[in-house]
Amino acid sequence: MTLDDAEEAMLKLYCERSNLKDGHTVLDVGCGWGSLALYIAKNYTNCRVTGICNSTTQKAYIEEKCRYADWYPIVCFKS
C-alpha cells in the first residue's frame, strides 16, 4: 500500500465514521491543505463543504484544485 492509498483509505474511514451522506453540509475547521474537503468534493458531489484555514497559501492551493477539477461545492476562506 502506498502513502496515497493509505491517505485515501483514512479519508474514506473518516466519512464512514461520521455517517456522511451525499447532500450533507460539512464544516471543516482547520482544513489545512484541504485533503478531506477535496476528498468529499470528489466522492460526494452533492455535499457543500466549507473549509476554514488561516493560511492564504493553503486557501489558494485549495481554490486552485477546485477550479481545476470543477468542484464548486467547496468554499474555503481564511479565518
User: Any idea what the radius of gyration is?
Assistant: 12 Å
- Average pLDDT taken over every residue: 90
Tally of DSSP helical segments: 3
Described by strand count, sense and barrel closure, the largest sheet is: 3 strands, parallel
Helix and strand content put the structural class at alpha/beta
Q: Low-confidence parts lasting 5 or more residues at pLDDT below 50? A: none
Overall morphology? globular
Biggest β-sheet: strands ordered side by side in the sheet: 1-2-3
Q: What is the helix fraction of residues, given as a range? A: 40-55%
Distance between the termini: 36 Å
**SSE string, helix = H, strand = E?**
HEHEHE
Percentage beta strand: 15-25%
Strand count: 3
List keywords for this structure.
alpha/beta, 3 helices, 48% helix, 20% strand, globular
In short:
The protein has 79 residues and is of the alpha/beta class. It contains three helices and three strands.
Architecture overview:
The structure is a single chain. The protein is of the alpha/beta class. The chain is 48% helix and 20% strand. The chain has helices at 3-17, 35-43, 56-69, and strands at residues 25-29, 48-53, 74-78. It has a 3-stranded parallel beta sheet with strand order 1-2-3, with helices on one face. α1 packs across α2. It starts with a helix and ends with a strand.
